[in-house]
Amino acid sequence: MKKIEILLVEDNADDAELTLLAFEKGDIIQKNQIHVVRDGIEALEYLFETRSETDIHLNHRPQLILLDLKLPKLDGIDLLKKIKSHPEAKKIPVVILTGSKDMDDWAESYSLGVECFLHKSNDFDKFVEATNLIALGVIEEDKPSVDEVKEKTQNDEEILLIEDNPADVELTSLIFEKNCNIAKNKIHVTRDGAEALEYIFGVTDEDIAVDASLKHRPKLILLDLTLPKINGLEVLKRIKSHPEAKNIPIVVLTGSKNWMDWTNALSLGASQYLEKPLKSDQIVDAVNLVYVGGCTQEIKHERVLLCAPFPRVDFSMKGDEKNEKN
C-alpha cells in the first residue's frame, strides 16, 4: 500500500484522539501517517512556506486534509479560503470534520470546494466506517495517468449521458472526445428521466424489481438534475436502489446552486457533483475517478463522498410534468 499523509486540523484533544483511533481500528491508515495541528495558524505554517506576501510555496502536500470548522486563532472557513486560493494547495481534497449542523457552514464549505462533510458521531463504529471509506478514497495506489485512461477507453463500453439540453449534450460530448479520447459514439444520450430508466432497466415503473437484470450497464452515468418526465434525483434514487445498478458510478451535472440538491444527490449515492458550465479538467477527473475502461473488479479504491446527516427535502417523482400541468 502506498504511504500517504493526512493532515488533521483539530483543536479538541479528545476528538483528535477519537479520529486517530478510528483510522487505526480500520487498519488502513496508521497513526504515524496522520499529522495533527491544533489551530488554523499552525495549519497554515505546516502547509505553506511564506517568503513574502506574493511568494507563498507549498511546504507540505498531504493527500487529504481533515478540517474542523471551530478553530482558535484562525477559524476553519478562513483557513479553507486560504487553502483553496492557492494554485497548488487547492488540489488537496478537504473533508470537513465537524459536530456542527449549521446549514450556513455546510453551504459555504461546499461553495469553497470541500469534498464532503464527516459528522462527528456518537456511534464510534459508524465513525470508524466513515473515516476508513474516506481513507480508501485518497489512496492512489496503481492509479492510471490521464494518458493511460485515454488509451484504455478507446474501445470502452458506453457512457450514459442523461441531459435534455442539446447544447449541453454537444459540449459534454466534445469535452470527452477532445480530453479523454472517448468517441461520441461511445456516449449514449437520453433526453429525459423516463427514457434513461427505460434504457437501463427496460421499464420505467416506480417499483423496479430488485432481481431484474439490467438491460444496459454503462461504465459511467452523467446525470442532469432538471429533466422532463422524471427528475434527476428520482432517477438517481431508483438506480441506487437496485442491487446491481447501484454500483454504476454517477456524476451529477447541473446548473443548480441549491444546496439541498447537493445534499440530496450526495446522500443518494452520487460520486461527484459538477456545476455547469463544465470544464474539461472536471470531465477528466470524473473519468479518472471511475477508471472508465476497466471492469468493476479492477476498481480498487473508488473515491467515496460522504455527506452530513441532514434530512433530504421531498422531491417530486415527476416534477417537470407537474409544472407543465400548472
Strand order of the biggest β-sheet: 2-1-5-6-7
- Provide the CATH topology of the largest domain: Rossmann fold
Kindly provide the name of the CATH class of the largest domain. Alpha Beta
Q: Describe the global form.
A: globular
What does this protein structure show overall?
With 326 residues, the chain is of the alpha/beta class. The protein folds into 2 domains: 6-138, Response regulator (Rossmann fold, 3-Layer(aba) Sandwich), CATH 3.40.50.2300; 146-320, 3-Layer(aba) Sandwich (Rossmann fold). 38% of the residues lie in helices and 15% in strands. The chain has 12 helices and 12 strands. It has helices spanning 13-26, 40-47, 76-84, 103-112, 124-138, 146-152, 166-180, 193-201, 232-240, 259-267, 280-290, 319-325, and strands spanning 6-9, 34-37, 48-50, 56-58, 64-67, 94-98, 116-119, 159-162, 187-190, 220-224, 250-254, 272-275. The protein has a 5-stranded parallel sheet, with helices on both faces. The protein has a 5-stranded parallel sheet with strand order 9-8-10-11-12, with helices on both faces. It has a two-stranded antiparallel ribbon with strand order 3-4. A hairpin with a 5-residue loop joins strand 3 and strand 4 (56-58). The longest helix has 15 residues, at 124-138. It is globular and about 55 Å long. It starts with 5 loop residues before the first strand and ends with a helix.
List strands and helices in order, with pairings.
Layout (H helix, E strand, L loop, with lengths): L5 E4 L3 H14 L7 E4 L2 H8 E3 L5 E3 L5 E4 L8 H9 L9 E5 L4 H10 L3 E4 L4 H15 L7 H7 L6 E4 L3 H15 L6 E4 L2 H9 L18 E5 L7 H9 L9 E5 L4 H9 L4 E4 L4 H11 L28 H7 L1
Parallel strand pairs: 1-2, 1-5, 5-6, 6-7, 8-9, 8-10, 10-11, 11-12
Antiparallel strand pairs: 3-4
Helix pairs in contact: 1-5, 2-3, 3-4, 7-11, 8-9
